[in-house]
Amino acid sequence: MPAPYRLHLVYFGQPPAGESDALALSPQLEGCMGLSLGRLDAHSTLAARWCRDPMDLAPQRRIALELLTRHATPTPTPRLDSIADNTDAALYLSETHRPVPLHLNAGDTHPGTLLWSGSKKRPDVKNKMNLKQWFKSHISIIIYTQQTDSYSQHRAQWRRGPVLDGIAEETFPLPASQSEAAFFNA
Length: 186
Prior knowledge:
This protein is α+β, with helices and mostly antiparallel strands. The protein has one domain (about 5-185). It has helices spanning about 20-25, 40-45, 80-85, 125-145, 175-180, 180-185; strands at about 5-10, 30-40, 60-65, 90-100, 115-120, 150-160, 165-170. A 7-stranded antiparallel beta sheet has the order 2-3-1-4-6-7-5. The longest helix has 19 residues, at about 125-145. The radius of gyration is 16 Å and the shape is globular.
């Protein structure tokens, strides 16, 4: 069973200087069920041309920790503070929803590409409507219009970094980075 929470350590703009520090600190979190690493590579850079980044965050790397416990209600635990203070990453603790889960064994690598995107809800849209649109309507659009291997949605509960309400992660097969028709499952 996938963990219901995820801690994202995201490196924006420049490749990370302190990624090894974050990797060393991260497994100390209580209830950590796994860790995955996403790096911006040539394939992800190509595939990103078909995605939106309206806040121009330019994510370079992402460390994701799968957690069984929330760790913040609403103030962070000392462990989250320690990670935030000892890495140059932005941190996002989120509730996780996996409409199309990624199935990898420990140590495996996805053979395609990962796209990570953050979003802010429009100020004129109520929270309940925003969640309904994202968790219901958006899922079918993603699944039917893209060649998505996996899709997960993360509702931000706590952060240290640019203000984001939600995070989406998608994986695509390698041909999707080369071809718009392959990306959009045309």
